[in-house]
Fold:
Amino acid sequence: MEKLLILTGAGISAESGLGTFRDRDGIWSRYDLNAVATPEGFAHNPLLVHEFYDARRAASRAAQPNAAHHALARLEREFPGEVLIVTQNVDDLHERGGSRRVLHMHGSLEGALCAECGHRWPAPAVMLASVPCPVCSASRIRPDIVWFGEYPYHMEEIWQALRQADVFVAIGTSGTVYPAAAFAQDAARAGAWCLELNAEASATAPDFDALRLGPATRLVPDWVNEVLTHGTAGKQPG
Ligand code: OAD
Structure:
């Protein structure tokens, strides 16, 4: 049974209206990454960090899954093998598009995490630093997001999936943030055929066997149609 491992990045949600990070006018051109996406930034100014993620949560909740998210959900439903999505995205558009097997390696806007005791609960629309944890009562609420300098979630499961994948597909990611940026190399070393679908070639494009350029809402449904027509995702023309 063929195993497909799909890595997604901000580019798959771009046409749903959620900004990417490193494109022109991207999130990191408007915000200081160190101030809003590191434990040190949170310790220095929690209010700023909460405002940043509250705004992104509101944008995510107002957005709708696009044709690329829906196509991947269709693939999971109809492909006669295994489909696993590993996403760097913290929105929930894969799930709202119908995907079931999704690992959020950088966490989720929909989660609240107690920085004191590690308890997790659903995120409110607005996170107030004064809100006590329902378990330990400490007032150290933070978004359940993996910041720079922190260890991504689900890595054991992801390494195992990389070792077992027959086909690895990266969609809408710039290939600049590790460990995700090394996944194509890891999967290829374990024998997977690797395909990149992106608006422009990523920093890691040489690690892939094939590259298709264009908007995710066109590339992904086209690729899914091909896979479901042929019954296999392996070694298709680039
Ligand atoms: P980036 O902003 O670095 O890259 C987005 C990629 O999507 C680029 O390669 C674009 O060319 C591509 N792209 C843009 N619009 C597209 C479209 N309509 N269709 C297809 N591709 C499109 O975002 P990521 O690679 O996801 O981490 O960034 C990785 C991590 O860096 C994020 O998870 C986040 C960020 O800092 C943390 O915050 C920890």
